[in-house]
């Protein structure tokens, strides 16, 4: 009895070993793919419509440019006028009171106190006067420049240094007539206006080129070879057409 073996024992062990062998022979399933972020086509942004800022001088509208220039000119003229006016008022006070100088310490204290008061008051008056005057003339220069641009048909496009030069000369001439300068001073003022207009105009054109924008006169000179070639082609076509017409006339005769 002890040597008896269960005939089903071997089969059961074999049946247990076969699945293990089969399990070892079957490759493991591949790992699941890693989750990838959801991808979508890029959103196309519609280009912004062109505005008048793109074609204005220094990419700034005429109104804002004029107000900024007038404000800067006012503060600059005020500072210069206060410095000049206070000095002139102090010298004037000294000249007016040179015949009655004080003789004691109290008199000198009151003298300098009064002189400083007159210098401060004269500086404020001269500063405001020069600030307003300079602001008006600078604003007039910018208005003249814009008017010339519009007269040339460049009101909605970018101008060039030509309008700035003419505006500088016109402002210099108006300043000379306002102050009734002699001819020599008028010529000197005109040269100064020409230099300022040319320098400021070329500076604006340089800023325009640095921003990657185009200028009309540069594009004109750049397209000269193509224009000459187009004109030559038209002349050749006209000559060929005339030759063809003359041949037809001779054949008919």
Automatic annotation (TrEMBL):
Region span, Disordered: 1-50
Biased amino acid composition, Basic and acidic residues: 14-23
Protein name: Mitochondrial inner membrane translocase subunit Tim17/Tim22/Tim23/peroxisomal protein PMP24
Pro residues composition-biased segments: 26-40
Species of provenance: Macrophomina phaseolina
